């Protein structure tokens, strides 16, 4: 009995540790976040001066990088026109600060320039991202996204991903609307999830395990922003295109952090006026969320897995009779 009680107690500690570690990451930067937000837009100042002002109170390098990420996320908006046209031409820092708009290359360039001012090594990485399910298995003519890698030490575990574009807000799937929304998940991002959302032109800048090729990356489902909240580490189906019939249910298995309470699991099926939301029954076993669904309409349509109403995975489903 004592042995079982000990196991139970250790289990509680592990679960609480996972939850508290996620919370402590946010708490670690609370002072930085509030200070940078209090500074406002710092209009008329150049990148060097802004970088100095937002970082001067913080001797720690991580805090400095966080302050720079914060200021950009709070004050720079995504250039929808450039994004929709896949315009990869670099928006130079001076222009970004003047217009307060940037494409992903402009975000990354500004972030790199501000890090350089405070002597933090930062590299920009060109590569690929998928923005909607229609892009699954579709290779772009050229890279369509840019992010950053920050080096704070010599060992591999002191290199970090930062995506200042996605940290500042998000677009709808068709890139017709941009919503300004600070997202700290893209600061020192979880490597597993990040690698399933981003694929670098130069694989030397893939930190940790990830897709082995661009084709492998493009074949995956869309890993959406909600994946960070639930610490997703594995999923199936792992092919972004699901071929189904109306007779047989499709099984889903998503490995996630046991510390996150699940209140509702649903599927967002279709798009536009035909979009439907279907709640599904699920079980949790061995650290996985497990459910199945039988699609009852023969057609091809996007399907998004939602956990607690947060989008997690996106598929294109081809249903035959």
3D structure, described in words:
The chain is built from eleven helices and 18 strands. The protein is of the alpha+beta class and 321 residues long. It folds into two domains: 205 residues, C8orf32 fold; 87 residues, Immunoglobulins (Immunoglobulin-like, Sandwich). The N terminus is likely disordered.
Strand content: 25-35%
The biggest beta sheet is recorded as: 6 strands, mixed
User: Low-confidence runs (pLDDT<50, min 5 residues)?
Assistant: 1-24
Number of helices: 11
Intertermini distance? 55 Å
Structural category is alpha+beta
Rounded to an integer in angstroms, the radius of gyration calculated over CA atoms is 21 Å
Return the string of H and E elements: HHHHEHHEHEEEHEEHEHEHEEEEEEEEE
Classify the oligomer: single chain
- CATH third-level topology of the largest domain: C8orf32 fold
Q: Could you say which overall geometry the principal axes of the C-alpha atoms support? A: globular
Number of strand segments: 18
- CATH class designation of the largest domain: Alpha Beta
In CATH, the architecture of the largest domain is Roll
Instruction: Give the overall pLDDT as a whole number.
Output: 89
Q: Structurally, how many domains make up the residues?
A: 2
How much helix, percentage-wise, in residues? 25-40%
């Amino acid at each position: 009995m004592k042995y079982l009680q000990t196991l139970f107690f250790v289990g509680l500690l592990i679960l609480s540790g996972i939850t508290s570690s996620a919370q402590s990451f946010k708490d670690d930067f609370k002072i930085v976040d509030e200070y940078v937000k209090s500074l406002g837009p710092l209009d008329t100042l150049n990148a060097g001066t802004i970088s100095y002002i937002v970082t001067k109170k913080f001797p720690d390098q991580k805090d400095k990088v966080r302050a720079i990420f914060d200021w950009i996320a709070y004050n720079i908006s995504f250039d929808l026109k450039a994004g929709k046209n896949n315009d990869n031409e670099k928006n130079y820092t001076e222009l970004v600060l003047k217009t307060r708009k940037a494409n992903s290359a402009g975000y990354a360039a500004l972030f790199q320039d501000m890090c350089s001012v405070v002597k933090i090594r930062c590299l920009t990485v060109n590569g690929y991202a998928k923005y909607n399910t229609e892009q699954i298995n579709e290779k772009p003519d050229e890279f369509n996204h840019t992010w950053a890698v920050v080096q704070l030490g010599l060992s591999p575990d002191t290199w970090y991903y930062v995506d200042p574009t996605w940290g500042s807000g998000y677009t709808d799937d068709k890139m017709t609307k941009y919503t300004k929304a600070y997202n700290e998940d893209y600061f020192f991002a979880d490597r597993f999830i990040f690698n399933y959302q981003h694929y670098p032109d130069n694989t030397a800048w893939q930190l940790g395990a990830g897709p082995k090729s661009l084709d492998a990356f493009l074949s995956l489902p869309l890993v959406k922003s909600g994946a960070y909240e639930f610490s997703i580490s594995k999923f199936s189906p792992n092919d972004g295109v699901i071929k189904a019939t109306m007779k047989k249910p499709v099984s889903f298995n998503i490995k996630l952090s046991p510390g996150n309470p699940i209140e509702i699991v649903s599927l967002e099926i279709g798009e536009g006026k035909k979009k439907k939301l279907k709640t599904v029954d699920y079980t949790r076993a061995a650290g996985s969320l497990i459910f199945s669904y039988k699609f009852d309409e023969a057609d091809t349509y996007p399907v998004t897995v939602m956990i607690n109403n947060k989008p997690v995975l996106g598929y294109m489903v081809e249903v035959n009779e």
